[in-house]
Amino acid sequence: MTGLTTQTEAARPLGAPGASGAPGAVAGGKAPAGSGLTLDGIQVMKAGRLILDLESLRLPPTGLAAVIGPNGAGKSTLLRVLGGAEKADAGRALLDGRDLFRMPGRRRAALVGFVPQHFAPHWNQKVHELLELAEERTGAAPGLFAEAAEEFALGDLLARRWEGLSGGERARVLLAMALGGRPPLVLADEPGAALDAAHSLRMLEAFRGKASESLFLVAIHDLNLAVRFFPRIIALKDGKAAFDGGPEELAEGGVLDRVFGVRFRKVEFGDGFMLFPSTAL
What we know:
- The protein has a domain at 61-81 and 106-280: P-loop containing nucleotide triphosphate hydrolases (Rossmann fold, 3-Layer(aba) Sandwich), CATH 3.40.50.
- The strands form 3 sheets. The chain has a 6-stranded mixed β-sheet, with helices on both faces.
- It is globular and about 50 Å long.
- It has helices spanning 75-83, 105-111, 127-138, 144-151, 167-179, 197-210, 223-229, 247-250, 255-260, and strands at 37-46, 49-59, 63-68, 90-95, 98-99, 112-115, 185-189, 215-219, 232-237, 240-245, 262-269, 272-280.
- By secondary structure, the protein is of the alpha/beta class.
- The N and C termini lie far apart (39 Å).
- It is 28% helix and 28% strand.
């Protein structure tokens, strides 16, 4: 992702207050009624088991929210349901008052950018072909995906085929495909898993730079990146929301211990902190 440009300041210390202020804060003031993302009664069943059961969750029109939790907590399922890759068995997801679950695929593609954890195109296409397909599917204005290709430094990759790309290169292509249309909602499922430390930081800085324009809901395993970049953190356990608040709240009162079944230590330094798992409970 060399050459990735952002409009953000240098990354703040771990655990320092986010640029968006309090958890769920909206850039530019209070969100108008009915705007943002509202999740009500979303349930997903698999093999007769309820794996996602969200009673109510409301997020503002813009900003950054991390989704954390142990393996099997429902993080990927939640994002896949919102992105249209899976169907919910119950509930609704309102984006600015419109139910994503009832939208035609093309309309949802224009409103939701989705970076899945695993992606494989039907054919071994070239990168520029994948971007053209994304542009056509979203109905984006001409030139937006070309800007995304430049932002994520895809110039040397455009003529290469998907199967010849490294994991990090594929991640950059997926980010350009998801963000190129400038959707109001961006879903990202472990988007930095294949990226090295520098590229992962640049990606999150790019998210923060765009958080005044879109709402980013990002599943992430690295808790220290979560408290560094995300002013709002939602923790899932057994398919339910076990916590919804800011980094400081997350690190207090044994919240992480209960969610992950591991005792965490909080190590403060400067105006930030880091979290370290110590012993299993």
